[in-house]
TrEMBL record:
Pfam family, one: Peptidase_M99
Organism from which the protein derives: Arcobacter venerupis
Residues of the D,L-carboxypeptidase peptidase domain: 27-258
Protein name per UniProt: Peptidoglycan peptidase 1
SUPFAM superfamilies, per the entry: Zn-dependent exopeptidases (SSF53187)
Domain Metallo-carboxypeptidase C-terminal as annotated: residue spans: 340-429
Alphabetized InterPro entries for the sequence: Metallo_peptidase_C (IPR033397), Peptidase_M99 (IPR031489)
Highest taxon in the source lineage: Bacteria
Amino acid sequence: MRTIIVFFIFIVELFASNTPFDLYKKEGEIKGHTLLIIGGIHGDEPGGYFAPAFLEKYYKIKSGNLWIIPNLNTDSIMADNRGIYGDMNRKFSSVDKNDNDFETVTKIKKIILDKKVDLILNLHDGHGFYRNKYENAIFNPNAWGQATIIDQEKINGLEKFGNLDELANKVTSILNNDSLFQEYHSFGVKNTETKFKDEQMQLSLTYFAVTNNKPAMAIETSKNITELTYKVIYQLKSIEEFMKIMDIKFERDFDINNYEQVKNKIYDFGKVTINNNISFDLTDIKSNMRFVPLKKNDNKFDFTHSLARVKNSDNKYEIYIGNIKVCDLYPQIFDLSTTKEKIKILIDGKELETSFANIVDIKNDFKILKSDFRVNIIGFSKNGVDSEDDILIKKSDIQDNYSIDNSNNKYRVEFYKDGKFYGMIILNFIADKK
Ligand SMILES: [Zn+2]
């Protein structure tokens, strides 16, 4: 029996498909061209997926269309690996039906060939810094970083966006004349002359597109730039220039040259809601959370960040934002129940009603008002008390190490009835602004 189970798992592993990617269509009210952005074909190139995730979250499209896939190679992104099922960008000439990337590659090919799509950008972080003359082992013609990569000069006979070389040079020169963080971050245009010179690239996504008369190129920031914010800014600036050329009008409410502003947005990981009755802010969350009341199976995770994924591994749930693991959740198994009933809390002297999976802000103190739930404030205990309601509590009454965030401001309150878990509320202690 045991052997059969192992064998079964082996089969499942062998034919497991890459986790599906997401396609976000941002379409303006005024019709126009469609730019398709593909991020995350290589899982260890974070500039290539945090930039499109950023686009998805912070850009508004007024005219024309921006289609965004932030996470093409989802499983490899979580693993921070170029391709855990092999190099996906070498599977566009042919892909085996049993390949774990088969479904992903088949699906993305269809999207690339969609009649609406006018231009495709495939985002990467490449090695070194591309230069057309050899300078040293890092700055040379064989490097891929800080370059717009084209497979050929133009797509013959295609008027709209068919002159790849001209487009790439235009965007690159604007980028270089704008403010680079370092002079050596300057961009180049690399023509791989794929048809004649590069057998490997003949298997790639952009070459598949170009040979199907779809203008496509790659934007590569450098793996040698370790600061993610720089890479994201460079990728975004390139994409913005392409949008301008395509007359796609966009709005954003931040300054793209403001490093701190962009960085704060990149590292805002948003929220997770679990089973509609628990909600955590992921930005400052501690790396481990124990005794989280979950079901045995079929727990439902909803995220606000497009690169968020959850991986269930033996005794825990790993939450990722791109290649960054933000938290391990260790469950305590409960039967769940739901209710429309609200919870009444006295906060800083005022009564407030809230439903589960909410965060409430507290300046000084709070008291959970009595109901028929058993209340458990994690990190608080009082001798002889089973249900921790009807007690006025200050932040200093709760032990710091039970907070869910690194800043020790957020704490869990859990509600139970007849042995079933109903929901959680997060108490957020905020500094009193006087
Ligand atoms: Zn790559």
